[in-house]
Design goal:
By secondary structure, this protein is α/β, with parallel strands linked by helices. The protein has eight helices and 18 strands. The chain is about 30% helix and about 20% strand.
Length: about 300
């Protein structure tokens, strides 16, 4: 029996398999070059990029929790100039498409980043992180207001012809409303979910375990929330969804596709096992063979509901 076809299309960007890396958990890919064959990945999403370099938050900024981890890295990154000069040359040598995750403090910053990225042939797509605070609106996160989120996506869409994916925050009242706003503004795909705001306390010192007090919760603890949100969004949008949140193995990845995701991103698992992504690809293929399916797309959205 021929190996199942794992090729998927996420709104005009074709991937050789559905397994991508989640931004912020895989560096700029070179960090994992000695652990895995990077050319086997479906796609590589690099660390979030801003116009200027950022040192992020002071330590401690990562803490392990029950069934997951909290991070308050603060989007530390080399800035777009550093990315172009020092990181992109290596990424150009790889077969999987590079997707740049971008963020800003104003709508104008997002647009400027998209404009800069448009000239980079090696960058095949953008993932817009709208979980960041809007400094012009008193720190309200772009991703918590459909109108402001739509404004960001529209501004980026005007500046780029590249594949445009929008990463949705789970820290909202109505995720479906946010998804529709991003779709209406020109997104080619959606990725969800970003981390859930959480906290960890050290009883002996009576302090938060993070210098930033709060951080983003990721890992298996958030998988049920992520699954529900992917399923919910799949009911209301027509563009592809990339599932993120607590994917540690092939079973997790396949569950996300069953509830409506076309592809997945692997994040926290990379810290536990640098080879997680490839193990998930192999596991997905074995499961499809066992089930007699010759194409992974046959699984998407097949959840049986009452």
């Amino acid at each position: 029996m021929a190996a199942p076809d794992l090729t998927v299309d996420i709104g005009g960007l074709e991937l050789q398999n559905p397994v991508m890396t989640a931004s912020g958990t895989f560096g700029y890919a070179r960090e994992f070059d000695h652990f895995i064959d990077l050319n086997r990945l479906g796609g590589i999403i690099v660390k979030g990029l801003s116009l200027n370099p950022s040192k992020g938050n002071p330590p401690p900024r990562i803490v392990e929790t029950d069934c997951g981890m909290l991070n308050a890295i603060g989007l530390e990154n080399v800035g777009i100039d550093g990315f172009i000069k020092d990181k992109l040359p290596f990424l150009k040598t790889l077969r999987p498409p590079t997707i740049a995750n971008i963020y800003g403090k104003t709508v104008e910053e997002y647009a400027l980043l998209a404009e800069r990225m448009e000239t980079l042939d090696a960058v095949k797509g953008l993932e817009v992180n709208i979980s960041c605070p809007n400094v012009k609106e008193g720190g309200v996160a772009f991703g918590s207001d459909p109108a402001i989120a739509g404004e960001v996506v529209s501004a980026v869409r005007e500046k780029t012809t590249k594949h445009l994916m929008v990463k949705l925050s789970p820290n909202v009242t109505d995720i479906a409303r946010m998804a529709r706003a991003a779709e209406d503004a020109g997104a080619d795909a959606l990725s969800l979910i970003n981390t859930i705001t959480g906290m960890a306390v050290d009883l002996s010192t009576r302090r938060s375990k993070l210098a930033n007090l709060t951080g983003g919760l990721s890992g298996p603890a958030i998988k049920p929330v992520a699954l529900r949100m992917v399923w919910q969004v799949a009911q209301v949008v027509k563009i592809p969804i990339v599932g993120v949140g607590g994917i540690m193995n092939a079973t997790d990845a396949l569950e996300f596709m069953m509830v409506g995701a076309t592809a997945v991103q692997v994040g926290t698992a990379n810290f536990v096992n640098p080879g997680s992504t490839l193990a998930i690809i192999d596991g997905m293929q074995k499961w499809l063979q066992h089930e007699g399916l010759d194409n992974v797309n046959q699984l998407i959205g097949t959840l049986v509901t009452p």
